[in-house]
Structure formats: structure tokens, C-alpha cells
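Here comes just one.
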Amino acid sequence: MSELLLELKDIKKSFKNHHVLKGINLNVNKGEVIVILGPSGCGKSTLLRSINGLEEIQGGEINFKGKSLGGKDVNWQEVRQSIGMVFQSYELFPHMKIIDNILLGPMKAQKRSKEEVMVQADALLKRVNLYERKNSYPRELSGGQKQRIAIVRSLCMNPEIILFDEVTAALDPEMVKEVLEVILGLAKEGMTMVIVTHEMGFAKAVADKIVFMDNGEVCEVASPDEFFNNPKSERAKKFLSQFLTVG
């Protein structure tokens, strides 16, 4: 039986009078890859930010490994060690070398030794073909390289789940592939992930389950094959037809 890792129950979020999330329900099992699709502005990124405690919800419940992430006493610094997040904008410190960007979190938040983290960081940098750039500064790297470093930084915290928020949106087309290949590799190894993306081919290849959102609601949950070949909701059909027309 699958182990339930993350549970969202009736999540609601508003910005003033604008209802961004209108009662979202979603379960994520250990080792599962969930891809969230939908038009811009439908609430996908806000949902990820809410899971990571970067947005405060106005209703509902978020449970991680059976424990509620609601209330004022939640230690989000501790939670984020288990629920990692990789952003569209990399979030690397420009004044620090790549290796120092990677070492900072594990050493400061987890109090791990530099030697231990360095071994892990070196192995991960070799895996994403950036070991030789470990002493470079972010400004010396391409967008695709910086995004791969952001993924390595997250992995060095040994998270149980990683949230990816449009990580290829700011990249040139030729840089997209190198980032997506890293994420595909993580999926094959059983990393639990929730991914927001506009890359339809990637979504189809990596997802165990597609969650389609529109207007702050989950309209459809299906396997990739079912969603792309036989969408049930009219909104999903319209979304896919527009995408195919543009493509």
C-alpha cells in the first residue's frame, strides 16, 4: 500500500477579494510524481507556495506525514528541510560561489559538517555535469546551469519531497532540455515531486498523475495517457486544444 506523504484538504487562498484557491484537495504518495497543469493565473504556483509555507492559507488543512502544517507554532525552517522547493528565478546568492550556495543550507539549518556536505555536493555536481563550475559565481553560469545548481542545492538538504515551480519558464529553449533531464532522472530514482510546468511533452513523460487546474479549482485528475488522449472535463479539452493549435 502506498504511503501518503502530503495531504491537502479543502485549501482556500485569497488575495483581498480575489479567490485564488477555491477548495483544493490533493494527495501525494511517497515516490509519486504529480504534475500540475493549467492556464496562467489559475493558482498553480500559489498552491506550491502554500504547501511550502510561503503563502498563508485562509481555509483548509495541509498535512505532511500525518502532521498538520497549520497553526502559528509550525517551524517552517524545519519543514522546508523535508519539503524542498526549486523556483523559476533560481534564488542563488550572487556574491557567493556555487559551492558555498549549496553548502549554506545543510551547514546552517541542519548543522552538518562541511566535510560531509561537500562529499554529497561534489557527487551531485558531477551528476549534473557541473562539478568543474563549483568555484564559479552565479553570474558566470547560463540559466540552465543555474537552475541545475538550484536543484542540487535542494537535494543536498535531503528532502522527502521537492516542489518545482515553472523551473524552465525563464530559460532559452536550448537550456530547457538539460534541466528536464535532471528532473526525469530524479523521477526514475523514486523522488517524490510536485511539478508545475507548461512543458507538455515533459509532463507526459515524467508524471504518474496529472492534476489539471483552472480558475482556482481542480477540474480533473488523471494518468498522463488518459489526460492527453481522452480528457474528461470541457475545460481540459479546451486547454489542450489551444495548446495543440499554438504548437
